[in-house]
Amino acid sequence: MFRFLTAGESHGPCLTMIVEGLPAGLEVEKEIVDADLRRRQGGYGRGGRMKIEKDAIRFLSGVRHGKTLGSPITLQVENLDWVNWEERMNAAPVEAEMEPVTRVRPGHADFTGSVKYGHDDVRNVIERSSSRETASRVAVGGLCRQLLSQFGISVHSHVLSVAGVGYETPRGMTKEAYSEEMWRAVEESPMRTADAALTEKMIARILEAKRDGDTCGGVFEVVAFGVPIGLGTFSQWDRRLSTRVGMAMMSIPSVKAMEIGAGFETTRTTGSHVHDVLRREEDGSWSHPTNNAGGIEGGISNGEPIVVRVGVKPIPTLAHPLPSVDLATGENIDQSRYERSDVCVVPAAGVVGEAMLAIVLTEALLEKFGGDSIEETLRNYRSYLQQ
Ligand SMILES: Cc1cc2nc3c(=O)[nH]c(=O)nc-3n(C[C@H](O)[C@H](O)[C@H](O)COP(=O)(O)O)c2cc1C
Ligand SMILES: C=C(O[C@@H]1CC(C(=O)O)=C[C@@H](OP(=O)(O)O)[C@H]1O)C(=O)O
């Protein structure tokens, strides 16, 4: 069974991940994982923290001579900001001459986390609720990406809109709609969008929000190519591929909406405009001229690209804070607290979305094809394709 756990506080010494269930003999390159971590740190609208961190993994177990051993893999990402926080993290607030954090930020985990865990210093909540944790997912996803590439599967993302500036939800995306050229342009764009004019508009929107002491959300899209027919199943609710993709995307902090394929658009028209007709090609392969289903039918991948669009709410920490409550006094206050923060993270969230889709596909692929070594998994996969 493929599974992973992540641990680590945002301002602690490091993030740690334990990954179990990847087959033995898989070549894994640190540089491929580090490149994903760098992409997650990018995008226009990030705050001061990203100037401090230089995320990169260290393998602490499970990999020898560049190949997986089949034993649990431990990954570590150092928090370079730790040196600036060590005293505050180790000493009680009074000793460190720090006021405990008590004014909760609307939209963050400050209120719910403090009540649930009984913390009177909200800092104890912020440490783990922080999206610093998403670096861990990207690191795990970077390993999964390398497994998937053995099966010809690749996962990409791009930004569709920021605070309403950008594309309306597109319909029926087919493989042809996404070219190599487009993905190159996405990687080079500060907003991870292939449209240069739109990039300018998005940046202007983020700057405007920043000037107003405000923040932006938006929509990103994740696409997986090369997924074989047959991952996931309708046989139990929690094993449907759509269920697992939904959970994976909704697990990203600040994600509040997602749709697969044409999603909500399908609810505004009729069946004859929605369902993807099945064709048999001369070479015996299957095809769907459209992909409104986003590559999943009956909870099972249908061989078309998996297309997922994801809605990210605006960042909760506002430079012009909203009214709130001070948990220490119980009094209503005019302004909650501001601390160093991002203004927009839609491009970064897209990279996290890629990692989450890579993780879900890895889990479903290993479930279908099994194998304790990569050779065995590939052999099972090839035999299935022949069948
Ligand atoms: C990559 C990334 C970076 C984020 N950076 C910040 C930030 O700097 N400040 C902030 O208030 N929220 C930030 N968030 C959003 C919060 O982590 C998130 O809103 C919070 O954990 C509450 O969870 P919820 O929005 O899912 O309810 C970030 C989210 C992501 C995905
Ligand atoms: C550290 C990351 O994002 C952080 C996520 C975050 C939050 O509240 O979610 C708040 C900020 O933390 P800090 O106060 O340390 O600057 C972000 O920088 C990261 O993405 O690696």
What topology emerges from the helices and strands here?
Elements: E1 3-7, E2 14-20, H1 30-41, H2 49-52, E3 57-61, E4 63-64, E5 67-68, E6 73-78, H3 82-90, H4 110-117, H5 123-129, H6 134-149, E7 154-162, E8 165-166, H7 180-188, H8 196-211, E9 218-225, H9 241-250, E10 255-260, E11 279-280, E12 286-287, E13 296-297, E14 300-301, E15 306-312, E16 324-326, E17 331-333, H10 346-369, H11 374-386
Antiparallel strand pairs: 1-2, 2-6, 3-6, 4-5, 7-8, 7-9, 9-15, 10-15, 11-12, 13-14, 16-17
Bound molecules: flavin mononucleotide and ligand EPS.
Name a few traits of the molecule:
single chain; 387 residues; alpha+beta; Chorismate synthase, AroC fold; five-stranded antiparallel beta sheet; 19% strand; globular; binds flavin mononucleotide; binds ligand EPS
Structure description:
With 387 residues, the protein is of the alpha+beta class. It has a single domain, classed as Chorismate synthase, AroC fold, CATH 3.60.150.10. It has helices at 30-41, 49-52, 82-90, 110-117, 123-129, 134-149, 180-188, 196-211, 241-250, 346-369, 374-386, and strands at residues 3-7, 14-20, 57-61, 63-64, 67-68, 73-78, 154-162, 165-166, 218-225, 255-260, 279-280, 286-287, 296-297, 300-301, 306-312, 324-326, 331-333. It has a five-stranded antiparallel β-sheet with strand order 8-7-9-15-10. Strand 7 and strand 8 (165-166) form a beta hairpin. It is globular, with a radius of gyration of 22 Å. Flavin mononucleotide is lined by residues 47, 107-109, 129-131, 134, 252-254, 313, 315-317, 341-342, 345, 348-349, 352. Belongs to the chorismate synthase family. Pathway: Metabolic intermediate biosynthesis; chorismate biosynthesis; chorismate from D-erythrose 4-phosphate and phosphoenolpyruvate: step 7/7. Homotetramer. NADP(+) binds at residues 40, 46.
